[in-house]
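hey
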C-alpha cells in the first residue's frame, strides 16, 4: 500500500484574475447603462442615444449587452481554471496559453524524482526522464509547497529547499488505502 493524499486544489493568484474581473465589472456597467436606458424616461438623452438609435445599428443594444456580459463571464471562468491540483495519483496543473488555448499536464508520483522549492515564486518538478516541469504560480504558494513537502515526505521523494516537515497530522489525509 502506498500513500495517496487527499485531493487539494490551488487556484491562480489574484493578479491573474484582476484583468478578467475588471472586464466583468465594465461589462456589468455596460449592461446597467442599457437597462437604465430602456427603463428610464423617454425624454432623457441616454434613452435617445441607446434605444432610439437601435434600428440604425448593426447590432442592438440588448444583444450587445448580453454578448459582452457572456464574454466577460467566460474570460473570468477561463482565468480561474488555472492552477495546480494535488490528486491521489499525482499532480495536475492547468494553464492557459496564448489565444486562450488550455494546457493540462498530469504527472504521477512515480514520475517525480525531486521537488524543488528553492525559487521565490516557481516550484519545479524534476522528472524521471531528466526533464523539468515548472508549475504555474498559485495564490497560496506556501500552502502548495507545504502540501507537496508532506506528500514528498510520505512517498520518499527528495525535496530541495523545503522548510521541513515537523509533524505529520493524524488525519484521514495520510491514511493508507486499503
Amino acid at each position: 500500500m502506498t500513500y495517496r493524499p487527499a485531493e487539494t486544489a490551488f487556484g491562480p493568484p489574484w493578479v491573474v484574475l484582476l484583468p478578467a474581473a475588471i472586464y466583468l465589472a465594465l461589462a456589468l456597467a455596460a449592461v446597467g447603462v442599457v437597462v437604465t436606458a430602456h427603463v428610464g424616461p423617454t425624454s432623457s438623452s441616454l434613452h435617445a442615444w441607446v434605444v432610439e438609435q437601435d434600428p440604425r445599428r448593426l447590432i442592438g443594444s440588448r444583444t450587445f449587452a448580453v454578448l459582452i456580459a457572456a464574454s466577460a463571464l467566460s474570460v473570468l471562468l477561463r482565468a480561474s481554471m488555472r492552477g495546480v491540483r494535488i490528486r491521489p495519483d499525482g499532480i495536475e496543473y492547468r494553464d492557459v496559453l496564448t489565444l486562450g488555448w488550455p494546457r493540462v499536464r498530469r504527472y504521477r508520483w512515480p514520475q517525480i524524482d525531486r521537488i524543488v522549492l528553492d525559487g521565490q515564486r516557481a516550484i519545479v518538478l524534476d522528472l524521471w526522464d531528466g526533464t523539468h516541469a515548472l508549475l504555474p504560480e498559485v495564490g497560496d504558494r506556501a500552502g502548495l509547497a507545504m502540501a507537496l513537502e508532506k506528500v514528498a515526505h510520505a512517498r520518499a521523494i527528495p525535496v530541495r529547499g523545503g522548510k521541513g516537515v515537523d509533524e505529520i497530522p493524524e488525519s484521514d489525509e495520510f491514511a493508507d488505502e486499503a
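The mean pLDDT is 86. DSSP finds four helices and eight strands in the chain.
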